[in-house]
Amino acid sequence: MTGETMSELACGLGLGASCVVSLGWLLTHDGCAHPIGNLLAMIVLVGAGTILLLPAALRLMAGVVADSDEGERR
């Protein structure tokens, strides 16, 4: 593995852990008692989830757009 691949993996694992911890906080009783903590956890959850899922969503959409372009050219 190259250093770049390792750093991407570490970043993905860190963001995944952030998502899990944020969701765990939101679903606990302590989370219900602290609205500011809930806001911060929700911001982290949405931000990390977006960063994690955006590359896959863009690859999927690129394939869909490429398939629709091929259909128009025929």
UniProtKB/TrEMBL annotation:
Keywords, in A-Z order: Membrane, Transmembrane, Transmembrane helix
Record-annotated membrane-spanning stretches:
6-27, 39-58
| Name the UniProt record assigns to this protein | Uncharacterized protein
Identify the taxonomic lineage of the organism of origin: Bacteria, Bacillati, Actinomycetota, Actinomycetes, Bifidobacteriales
